[in-house]
Amino acid sequence: MSRRGWVLFLVMGVVWGIPYLLIKVVVEDVPPATMVFLRTALATLLLLPVALARGVLRPVLPHWRPVLVFAVIEMCIPWLMLGYAEQHLSSSLAGLLVAAVPLVGAVLVKATGHEHIGLRRVAGLLVGFAGVAVLVGFDVETSSPWPVVAMAVVACGYAVGPLVLDRHLSHLPNLGVVTSSLAITCVAFLPAGLAQWPAEAPGADTWLSLAGLAVICTAVAFLLVIELVAEVGPARTTVITYVNPVVAVALGWAVLDERVTAATGVGFLLILVGSIVGTRREEPTTVAAAVDGAGAQTGRTTAPDGVSSTT
């Protein structure tokens, strides 16, 4: 990986580990629907001029149906559910549970028949889900199961979104797809966002967190990830999924004084190991190995599979 690639990777690992802290601060004063509306409204205002200047919106318009599906699955539902969940769960726990996205993605790939999953990968998935069970069993301090269910919905959305993007929108400009999806989400949450506007004006910390969430963790983050994918490829980019939770836990502990227990470390370690093993491509068969050998002679390489996420 080039020096530029490493810089982009490290910056993105931090940038997409921050939203959990900011969301936790915002939902103390602002309902989740209003938060999603404000986040996407500001991000759209920032990205729209760039998208128009680059002429990347026009090619997206004829494909509005898959863009709509992508917006709903990747942004509308997950961001609303994440806001709801963080009204009850710590920001660090939310970040750790989102680390299960690659596991969910691997299961979906298998369920749709897109790829074979052997015993080694099944073992990895079981280890990863055991890590989720450890986190849920020991670190969740809520009397209701619904925040955990909401996080499961978030993980599913983040896992399905890239599949929709890959199969139906990969031939379109990324910036055009992202800007259009943000605009769709903004319009969708406009009525609820305004209807649930808080009666009391939020404090300065809330507004600053909202600004950071929209500007840094949404608009700037999407621009950076587009550059990162172009620099290092989509497979290496997905490794950010393993860095985000570390940043989320560190910030939750340092800024919000959230509790970090032994179960936190064990659960994350199991999820990390399970995700790496469970999402790695199987060893090729004899015939496939011969084909890959021929490809290697022509300079072709094969990268491990993975599933990316946004927050």
Task: Please tell me about this protein's structure.
The protein is mostly helical. It has one domain. It is 74% helix and 0% strand. It has 14 helices and no strands. The longest helix has 29 residues, at 204-232. The relative contact order is 0.22. The model is unreliable at 284-308 (pLDDT under 50).
Gross morphology is globular
Instruction: State Rg.
Output: 19 Å
Oligomer: single chain
Instruction: Return the string of H and E elements.
Output: HHHHHHHHHHHHHH
Strand content: under 5%
List the helices and strands and how they pair.
Layout: H1 3-15, H2 19-26, H3 32-54, H4 64-85, H5 91-98, H6 101-111, H7 119-139, H8 146-169, H9 174-195, H10 204-232, H11 234-237, H12 240-255, H13 262-279, H14 286-297
Helix pairs in contact: 1-10, 1-12, 2-5, 2-10, 3-4, 3-9, 3-10, 4-8, 4-9, 5-12, 6-8, 6-13, 7-13
Gist of the model:
This protein is mainly alpha-helical and 311 residues long.
Features:
mainly alpha; 311 residues; globular; 14 helices; 0% strand
